[in-house]
Amino acid sequence: MFDRTITYICAVAVVIGISKPVMGQAYYRDIEPIIWKNCVPCHNDNGAAPFSLITYDQVSKKAGTISEVVSHGFMPPWMPDTGYSRFVGERTLTAKEKSAIEAWVSKGKKKGKPRKTKLITVKTKDDLEEDLVLQVGTINVDTNVTDLYRFYVIPNPIKKDTTITAIRFNAGNPKIVHHAWVFGDTVGFNLRGVQTNVVSEFSDLGFPFTDVLTGYLPGFTASRLPANTGKRLYAGSNIVVQVHYYSPSGIFRDSCTISFEFNEQPVEIPVKTKLILENDLVEPPLFLPANKVSKEILEKNIEDSILVLRIGPHMHSRGTRVKVYAVSPELDTIPLIRINDWDFNWQGYYTFQEPVLIPSNSRILQEATYDNTIGNSVNPVIPPVDVSYGLGSLNEMCELAIEYLEISPPNRRTKKIKQQIMRQ
After folding, report:
1. 32/163 same-domain check
2. Of residues 14 and 146, which shows the higher confidence score?
3. I need a labelling partner for 122 at 20 to 30 A (CA). Which of 6, 48, 204, 343 fits?
4. What tens digit of pLDDT does each residue of 267-292 get?
5. What are phi and psi of 280, to 5 degrees?
6. Largest Cα–Cα distance in the chain?
7. Do 217 and 274 fall within a single domain?
């Protein structure tokens, strides 16, 4: 009887502890670390989010909204399905963290004592040594369009070959920079005859870029490359930048830069970037009939074994779901990324917690679902119209970028490199 009573009391205590939020939260002690880890990387004075959450007053002012969006899972925005694959810097809240925020708000937003040492966000602007900062260009345009593409060609000022160990595209106005690509060019690309204020892209211009140096999407910061790897920046080359600006007001004001961290030593294994584009569709061209839900599939054969470091699928507003995986010659499925609720405004270039080995002669596939019906609340054109491929936000895309190390054939060296990356 005594044992059963003790068991009953312990069981009740456990249930109460699980179901009842922890009381007595203070902002600086309990809430600030959650906010700085999950919110501040975007909610800062220069971030992609519409307001800052750096100070107690800023968070307190938005406390009701924060509690609401957190409890419903709208924030923090983390698109990849963590049950499918895992990435560095996942912005997900535990049940305990959600309860702490809700209890803090409901109990009066207690301030508490400020901490003695300031918190640092994950991946702040201090996450690389700026050995070189290049001015990309300035745009100051009032027009009647919502989408504007600009190209910039910047001569590499470094007089000798060097290795990029980290690189970051700095959007001067993140609220209007939809995305950007930074390329290395060794063939002398120029803008003669190119109209830079209309829709066009490098593939249309026949631009044979050497490599993709980095990409930018809202919320993405520096691209740090693993130890003993990197990307070569060649003396005498150009750096070519494509920037897609998106502004419903038709007002474009921005000044972008690129930050580089260098290592003068040659790389042991260069990091490469592969762009899988619309011409890799199983059934081209990309076409989404009005009032239909459609599926498009990209497929690319991989001849050599690769270690995938980062991945970034890309669609526009009609996209609803995407799944990327590889199929080995033995027909084994290798999960890469799955996003169950696509959001045009929250796209990323995601770094795997553990690099993914894809053996030679495998296939990479991307299954993308699009909803071009009136039931899609973010469909940009109502009533729906037929949609095809295009760079504008009213068009659609089906693309995939992967950053990888080429390692063929796989052997013990592969395992060693993988372990080196994971130790960082």
Report:
1. no
2. 146
3. 343
4. 777 888 888 989 999 999 999 999 99
5. -100, 10
6. 91
7. no
Looking at the fold, whether 281 and 424 belong to one and the same domain comes out as: yes
Q: What's residue 273's pLDDT?
A: 86
Q: What is the pLDDT of residue 414?
A: 60
43 touches 32 (CB < 8 A): no
The two tokens of residue 208 are 């044979």
Burial 315-337, CB ≥16 within 10 A → b, else e: bbbbbbbbbbbbebeeeeebebb
97 plus 146 within the same structural domain: no
pLDDT at residue 67 tops 60: yes
Domain count, the chain: 3
Backbone dihedral region for residue 12 (phi beyond 0: left; psi -120 to 50: alpha; all else: beta): alpha
The last residue of one of the domains, among 54, 73, 106, is: 106
Residues 131 and 228 in one domain: yes
| Domain carrying residue 401 | 269-424
Residue with the larger pLDDT of the pair 400 and 146: 400
pLDDT tens for each residue of 114-150:
887 767 554 444 467 899 999 998 888 888 888 888 8
**351 and 422 assigned to the same domain:** yes
Tens-digit pLDDT profile for residues 356-396: 999 999 999 999 999 999 999 999 999 999 999 987 888 99
